[in-house]
Specification:
Elements (H helix, E strand, L loop, with lengths): L13 H10 L7 H12 L5 E7 L9 H9 L2 E8 L12 E7 L9 E4 L12
Parallel strand pairs: 2-4
Antiparallel strand pairs: 1-3, 2-3
């Protein structure tokens, strides 16, 4: 599970921007998208890759090539899309968490939209 760096291409330093454009032309919109592409290519065919990322890749046209990579050549085995403050109030970040596999033979698991966590995920005994 990785939480890749988020940095939009419009604010990248020139050397980094040129590297991303040259090496990852399909995912150059944001550093997290290039990170996903690279990690998916590094993963062995029997492995899983997991990410916590902004959820914009699911909706914006600038991430269409990333979606094609994930849907056409990978299998998303789980996807959790929480609300902004689902885990703690101080984090106002539109994220999603997901796993994918290189195997096209897997059956994808259901997708989950979390609207509010009422109880803590982990409780310590009193």
């Amino acid at each position: 599970m990785a939480n890749p760096p988020y940095l939009n291409g419009s604010v990248m330093e020139q050397h980094l921007k040129q590297f991303v454009v040259d090496q990852f032309p399909d995912t150059k919109t944001d550093l997290f998208a290039a990170f996903i592409e690279r990690n998916c290519k590094l993963a062995k065919s029997t492995s899983y890759v997991g990410f916590m990322t902004p959820f914009v890749w699911m909706f914006l046209t600038s991430y269409e090539k990333l979606r094609e990579l994930l849907v056409e050549s990978k299998t998303i085995t789980s996807l959790i899309h929480p609300e902004y403050h689902a885990f703690f109030d101080s984090a106002f970040v539109p994220i999603c968490s997901w796993l994918n596999s290189d195997s096209r033979e897997l059956t994808a698991l259901p997708l989950v939209r979390v609207t509010r966590l009422i109880e803590p995920l982990f409780c310590l005994a009193q």
